[in-house]
Amino acid sequence: MGLYEKRVIRYILALSFVPGEDDESGVNVNPYTKYKLYELLVSPPFGAASLKKVVANMKNTIKNLYTAEAFIDKVKDDVEKNNLKEQFNCQKDLYDQELKPILKDPDKLFAKLTSDVFVRLNHSVADEFERIKREAQAKS
To answer: Per UniProt, which keywords does this protein have (predicted)?
Structure first.
């Protein structure tokens, strides 16, 4: 497994364990344990091929997220840097808001992570992080 594949898995794990978090309905959500999430991702209907596909779909998004953040840190003008950080944080928060509900429902996890909607979400978010990266690159 490469660097960004590992980062995808860590990103999924980080979003999956938020102790004591409440969802919009006010119901306390029980976070997965690391083993429970792993068990879900390696058992049917998931499997090696499906998991690789999910990771591949998220890989470019996570790669662009990390590179955009690195280029933002290189911007010297504080006003521009803060503007780019705000755009970055807004985009990351939106992505997390889309991803968290998917990860909280083990019954729908496979269907959601392998859906065309999830693929399109990752493409659009990856493109937005790429745009932020290019903007930061131009201003550094």
So the answer is: Plasmid
